[in-house]
């Protein structure tokens, strides 16, 4: 066997070993996202997209940029899965439009009063009954999977995959400023919304598990989570492209 052939087989073996080592990470992220998506989304499709993200991570990972491989790969795997779901375009445009209307209403009311807008305040401002308002929140929960992930990556060019070019100082400052704004916005949420966001995105509990902890129905947890995300979008509107 030639030296080139031996090297290639070793390289392939290393890649296979890394794939096997990180396959559980891909599956864990896939099942966590699946719990937030409609029944039409298949876990096998998420896993397949996640494996492509893992391979891309293995190709582009640069340890000199400070992040661990698991952290870097997790971001890329999740991003690949979200790209696959977006490609399927399963959320009607009307859902996004109504969600933005609620987000705008929250921003206007909170600017007027200086306080967190309540469910009843937003519904009244929009001329909706509470039942109608909650129905919109329930519908918007279908696209919630993009919410915090997209917010956290807005303007975010860190862990660049380009040819080793360092992040420009201005981009770094912009990213850091946005991350601080996002952290401050989450910290300023009403207590129950902040807790649910933490359990959902940090602890990666599903809606049913959160409901059991807080003694709420799964539907009510979904409503509160959706409202929290729309409140965050309203408070970060200056950072987010709402075209």
Compile the SSE list and pairings.
Layout: H1 3-34, H2 43-60, H3 69-88, H4 93-113, H5 119-126, H6 130-140, H7 147-153, H8 169-187, H9 191-202, H10 207-214, H11 218-235
Short description:
The protein is mostly helical.
If you had to describe this structure to a student in words, what would you say it looks like?
It is a single chain. By secondary structure, the protein is mainly α. The chain folds into 2 domains: 1-90, Orthogonal Bundle (Rna Polymerase Sigma Factor, Chain: A); 92-243, Butyryl-CoA Dehydrogenase, subunit A, domain 3. The protein contains 11 helices and no strands. It has helices at 3-34, 43-60, 69-88, 93-113, 119-126, 130-140, 147-153, 169-187, 191-202, 207-214, 218-235. Helix 2 packs across helix 3 (69-88) and helix 4 (93-113) packs across helix 5. The longest helix is centred in the first third of the chain and has 32 residues, at 3-34. The termini are far apart.
């Amino acid at each position: 066997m030639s030296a080139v052939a031996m090297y290639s087989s070793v390289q392939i073996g290393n890649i296979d070993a890394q794939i096997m080592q990180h396959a559980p990470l891909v599956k864990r992220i896939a099942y966590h996202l699946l719990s937030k998506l409609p029944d039409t989304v298949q876990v096998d499709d998420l896993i397949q997209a996640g494996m492509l993200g893992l391979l891309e991570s293995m190709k582009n990972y640069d340890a000199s940029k400070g992040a661990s491989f698991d952290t870097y790969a997790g971001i890329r795997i999740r991003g690949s899965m979200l790209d696959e779901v977006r490609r399927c375009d399963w959320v009607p445009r009307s859902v996004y439009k109504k969600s933005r209307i609620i987000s705008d209403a929250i921003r206007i009311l909170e600017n007027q009063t200086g306080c967190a807008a309540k469910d009843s305040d937003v519904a009244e401002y929009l001329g909706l009954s509470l039942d109608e308002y909650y129905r919109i929140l329930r519908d918007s929960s279908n696209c919630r999977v993009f919410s915090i992930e997209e917010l956290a990556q807005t303007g975010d060019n860190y862990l660049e995959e380009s040819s080793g070019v360092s992040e420009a100082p201005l981009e770094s400052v912009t990213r850091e400023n946005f991350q601080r704004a996002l952290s401050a916005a989450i910290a300023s949420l009403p207590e129950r919304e902040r807790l649910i966001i933490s359990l959902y995105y940090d602890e990666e509990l599903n809606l049913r598990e959160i409901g059991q902890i807080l003694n709420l129905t799964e539907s009510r947890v979904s409503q509160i989570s959706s409202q929290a995300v729309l409140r965050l979008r309203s408070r970060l509107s200056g950072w987010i492209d709402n075209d």
